[in-house]
Amino acid sequence: MDISINTPALLFPAISLIMLAYTNRFLALSNRVRSLHDKYDAGNAQKHIIHGQIKNLRYRLKLIKNMQALGVVTFLSCILCMYFIYAQWLRMAHWVFAFSLITFAASLALSLLEIQLSTKALEIELSDMDDLEDPSVIEYLKKKFERD
């Protein structure tokens, strides 16, 4: 397979957008951590819920840090790949481009895990409302279509 300098350059917009999304998630989490910390320090009666959320948030922050690191490695490896193409070291360019795709996929996999944990955090937040029903997706869709 021939690889041109445009091939790794095609990843630049995708990497930039995903890094922006990761940064937004990080900023939202950092604001949530600060507000939960204030609630915890104020002696809120729901310390067990706050403690569970902070534990979840701490792990999610680590995931986001690793997602961002993998995104940066992806960016740098694409740049390195472009250099190898420019220098006519095509075999090395193929390997580096493959590495950049793997690190990008790993970053997205961590993002999926972080999204799963964010829903768990919301479940912790809602845990004190036991009287609310929690339908499955199929049950929800059935009820939605029965109304219409």
The domain count comes to 1
Largest sheet: none
Question: Number of helix segments?
Answer: 5
Proportion of residues in β-strands: under 5%
Amount of helix: over 70%
Cα(first) to Cα(last) distance is 53 Å
Note poorly predicted spans: none
The topology string of helices and strands comes to HHHHH
Average predicted local confidence, pLDDT: 83
* Shape call: elongated
Structural class by helix and strand composition: mainly alpha
Report the count of strand segments. 0
Radius of gyration: 21 Å
Please name the defining characteristics of this protein.
mainly alpha
Summarize the structure.
This protein has 5 helices and no strands. With about 150 residues, it is mostly helical.
How would you sum up this structure, described in words?
The protein has 148 residues and is mainly alpha-helical. It is 82% helix and 0% strand. It has one domain. The chain is built from 5 helices and no strands. The model has no long low-confidence stretch (mean pLDDT 83).
Question: How is this fold's topology laid out?
Answer:
Elements: H1 6-9, H2 11-41, H3 47-86, H4 90-125, H5 137-147
Helix pairs in contact: 2-3, 3-4
